[in-house]
UniProtKB/TrEMBL annotation:
It comes from Coprobacter fastidiosus NSB1 = JCM 33896. InterPro entries: IspD, IspD/TarI, IspD/TarI_cytidylyltransf_bact, Nucleotide-diphossugar_trans. The record marks 166, 220 as: Positions MEP for the nucleophilic attack. One of its GO terms (molecular function) is 2-C-methyl-D-erythritol 4-phosphate cytidylyltransferase activity. Its EC number is 2.7.7.60. It catalyses: 2-C-methyl-D-erythritol 4-phosphate + CTP + H(+) = 4-CDP-2-C-methyl-D-erythritol + diphosphate. GO terms for biological process: isopentenyl diphosphate biosynthetic process, methylerythritol 4-phosphate pathway. This is 2-C-methyl-D-erythritol 4-phosphate cytidylyltransferase. Catalyzes the formation of 4-diphosphocytidyl-2-C-methyl-D-erythritol from CTP and 2-C-methyl-D-erythritol 4-phosphate (MEP).
Amino acid sequence: MQKTGKMQTDNCLQLPKYAIIVAGGKGLRMGGEIPKQFRPISGHPVLMHTLEAFYRYDPEIRIILVLPEEHQNYWNDLCLQYRFTLKHRVVTGGPTRFHSVKNGLDTLPDNGLVAVHDGVRPLVSEKVIDNAFEEAKRSGAVIPVIEVTDSLRELTSDGKSKSVPRNLYRSVQTPQVFKTALLKEAYNQPFCDCFTDDASVVEATGKEVKLIKGNAENIKITTPKDLLLAEMLLSHV
């Protein structure tokens, strides 16, 4: 998408932008042998739609795609098959998401802003990406969230449960965007099972993470039902 006016001028003044797309899942909940990030929807594999979302936002963004080594030849074959030529760099993932993100970060300079995004979230909006980068430029660390609409219950230590006020909770999405130096410093700490996303890694260093509004369509594809929903949503984009 061509940028014009103020947004185009602002982009010229911004720090270099990077996006680390993490696609290490084997898709066990999806069933079958093809990992979910490679499943076709609306004419292309999920992962290609995800990369395209970031290029629509900014054709100059530098994308690092983190893949398991055993998936890389298959990805190269898909790029040939679908004539997918968007520029990106492939980096080998690690044993966990933490290590995969760290491997991607190790390829980047300290100066800049970096988004970390799930490869199976192809429906992130350009507005959310832009708002996340703009807030990260100001505050250093930002994540998109959406309000919880279902009622919630907390499991208690006595094997029971209790109702909790859902207005106090938010569902977290990606991309999570940070000043690159800040995120690299956070990922220098030892791995912990308590790290559920990049924000939790950053918060473990004592840094505050800002919240912005996400987009409800930005679902994470993990089941066949999600795949059908994403197909329907993409057909209306």
